[in-house]
Specification:
The structure is a homodimer of 195-residue chains. Chain A is of the alpha+beta class and 195 residues long. The first copy, chain A, is built from five helices and ten strands; from the N terminus they run αααβββαβαββββββ. Chain A binds a DNA duplex (30 and 30 nucleotides) through α3.
Chain lengths: 195, 195
DNA sequence: TTGCCTAGTGAACGAGCGTTCACTATACTG
DNA sequence: CAGTATAGTGAACGCTCGTTCACTAGGCAA
């Protein structure tokens, strides 16, 4: 991660687009676009950036991602070295948006209220990433309408005579055996909590 | 969210840059760039996209974000309507990357191992977003090196004669009163879990 | 010293950019 | 029916784009 790359990424993150060669000349303190042209050429060769079908720069994965350093408890020594020394070149990088969302058109966020899924470590105030779906598999955490009321629970397929039912992750809540209707609206794909 | 906007956002997400007017003409099935020019003009007026200091299109918040529909348990009726009807125009939108990360240069991701923070609903396999820091405040969840070992715990300031100490969120783990050293490496800012 | 590589300058190129203008066809208004 | 918006076409504009070429200065090897 050299100085050129750093400034380029900073530009991209603040402007939400790639700079032109003229802008890069200013950014990198070159007086000629040709100097920029050759530095960019090396970056492309190194896979730091990519080029469009007609010359324009396109960001690679590096630009929106955050380094994953390792386990918090096991194998930490070398990982935590990274925290101190900025030695992030070899670590994995992820973007939360890409990590959490598979099908954008079907994905929504809901804020959690209540404690019925607390034993699954989904607490009040957490955000859940849900994906619209009509069907779920046993064990999925689903957003469902059961007998006219909406709720988030574990989906249980069969095992009870009356067909699919719902189970809370909290022993204070009884299982829900739908009387009239059970309609799946979405499946929970992830949980996010911020402090 | 009309058809023009949808196609534009799709283009941006797959190409990671804004299209040119010529590309938009193809995308929107116009034969003239002028038709594009006027549609874009209305979009800019409506705040859907923005323009650069020299004409080029720049994405707004809409482009990388996901709609937040509402609470899972309370006030759900209207919110869940959104899930079904795509009526997402009025809902809040967030980008996880922007939501979770304040200072990119100081932020890293760690994978959680062990169950010492389980009562804080941070389980094995979760990812924690941490921000490098030397100091923490009472109650923060920190990544720290205590007497040569790395751990994730609640940071407790004073209250014990020997100075700051660490507390697990699991009654099976005893509090940690550092004998020689307690060094804060990072503060936990968020948790992410994927199913 | 000579020769060669590297890094940078500065001018020039065609192509594609966003934008403007003149014009056409359709639809709504009185 | 004429009159006026509205939406689209197609050609043209100046400007900036990425790229190329010719040239200069410094460093290193033979």
């Amino acid at each position: 991660m050299n100085a050129y790359t750093e400034k380029l990424i900073t530009f991209y993150r603040s402007h939400k687009r790639m700079p032109t060669y003229a802008e890069l000349a200013t950014l990198w303190s070159f007086k000629s676009k040709n100097a920029v042209f050759r530095v960019v050429g090396k970056m492309v060769a190194a896979g730091i950036v990519a080029k469009d079908h007609l010359g324009r720069l396109v960001p690679t994965s590096t630009f929106q991602e955050t380094p994953v350093l390792g386990l918090v408890k096991a194998g930490l020594p070398s990982a935590i070295d990274g925290v101190e020394t900025y030695g992030i070149d070899e670590s994995e990088m992820i973007s939360f948006d890409e990590f959490l969302i598979k099908d954008r058109a079907k994905t929504y966020i809901l804020e959690v209220d209540g404690d019925s899924m607390i034993d699954a470590h989904i607490a009040k105030g957490d955000l859940v990433i849900v994906e619209r779906a009509e069907k779920a598999r046993d064990g999925d955490i689903v957003i469902a309408e059961v007998d006219g009321e909406w709720t988030m629970k574990y989906f249980r397929e069969q095992k009870h005579d009356t067909g699919p039912w719902l189970e809370a992750a909290n022993k204070n809540y009884a299982p829900i055996y739908p009387e009239h209707s059970l309609r799946i609206a979405a499946i929970v794909r992830g949980v996010v909590r911020k402090y």
